[in-house]
UniProtKB/TrEMBL annotation:
Protein name: Acg family FMN-binding oxidoreductase
Pfam families: Nitroreductase
Annotated region (Disordered), positions in chain: 172-203
Domain of life, per lineage: Bacteria
Domain Nitroreductase: 114-269
InterPro entries: Nitroreductase (IPR029479), Nitroreductase-like (IPR000415), Nitroreductase/BluB (IPR050627)
Transmembrane segment boundaries: none
């Protein structure tokens, strides 16, 4: 029993390192015997930017992937049920310890990147991203039944950049966004640290959020856009949002292992008419769930996470 308990605790600790919109960390967990429950924390949902909870569930899906990865890395096959109880909509998944397994090389690779991965919020260096690496990321997404679509057409990139600019201009001073900006020296364990983005946004074509506290940083000198990619789904339901989060995290951890970082741009996807335009004009009718840029950077930022005691019932 001690080995199972250690594996469960390690999985929960890893879950807290998942990415989430504005680092809002919108999840809670519970343990019953050898089963972990992953739940959405509706109090942390963005009431304006994410009224349906789409981004919240994507973040929780990423946390679920970390749970599964670490359990397998500890030698236990994770047995997962998605949305197991219709009467408990915030219960997104349960994961119990299954049969004993030998972790493979990919699982060990992912496990080693969970606490190293960081969200980037500036430009990238001019180092080219190898085509083979992008192709590998597409395969990683597919392994979780997700679709990562690199946007190679320059006109399509300009459309996505323009949509992002329009969304940012529509909400130039977003109080909900600034709520999650951490002032310099803040002891908060959630939100976006002031040193996680430059005070003067890099001219990448894709504006970053205005968290109001950006500080002078070397990362502002890197201005390359990087590779633009979109994660899409055929349908647009809670199941697809959770699946997107799992596929996204698998992509991010694989990318991190090869020195590749990701910057997220969800502004346009938070405005229904702009998201619909992207779906029809760029995504071939599929639903865009995440717009991101991928590239190399030499910047390093520290991560902040709430302690497990705050998210574990």
């Amino acid at each position: 029993m001690a080995m199972q308990a250690e594996a469960i605790r390690a999985a929960l600790e890893a879950a807290t390192w998942a990415p989430s919109v504005h680092n809002s960390q919108p999840w809670t967990f519970a343990v019953s015997g050898e089963e972990i429950s992953v739940r959405a924390d509706a109090d942390r949902k963005l009431r304006v930017g994410d009224p349906e909870g789409r981004e919240m569930l994507i973040g929780c899906g990423a946390a679920l992937f970390n749970v599964r990865t670490v359990l397998r890395g500890k030698g236990w096959a994770p047995v997962t049920r998605i949305l197991p109880d219709p009467d408990r909509p915030n219960l997104l998944a349960t994961v119990r310890l299954g049969e004993v397994v030998t972790p493979d090389e990919t699982t060990r690779l992912f496990g080693g990147e969970i606490e190293r991965r960081r969200t980037h919020r500036a430009g990238f260096t001019n180092l080219p991203v190898p085509d083979k690496l992008i192709e590998a990321l597409v395969r990683q997404a597919a392994a979780e039944n997700g679709r990562l679509m690199p946007v190679g057409d320059e006109a399509a990139v300009r459309v996505l950049a323009a949509l992002t600019q329009a969304a940012q201009a529509a909400r130039p001073e977003d109080a909900e966004v600034r709520r999650w900006g951490r002032a310099p020296g803040s002891s908060r364990k959630d939100g976006v640290p002031a040193d996680a983005y430059p005070s003067e946004p890099a001219d990448t074509g894709f504006p970053q959020r205005d968290y109001a506290w950006g500080i002078e940083a070397d990362q502002s000198t890197a201005t390359a856009t990087g590779v633009v990619a979109v994660m899409t789904t055929r349908r647009d339901s809670k199941e697809e949002w959770i699946a997107t989060g799992q596929a996204l995290q698998r992509v991010l951890l694989y990318a991190c292992a090869f020195g590749l970082s990701a910057a997220f741009h969800t502004q346009a996807l938070e405005l229904p008419h702009l998201r619909e335009f992207a779906r029809e004009e760029v995504c071939s009718g599929e639903y865009p769930q995440m717009i991101m840029r991928l590239g190399f950077t030499f910047d390093s930022t520290h991560g902040v996470r709430r302690p497990l005691s705050e998210v574990l019932d």
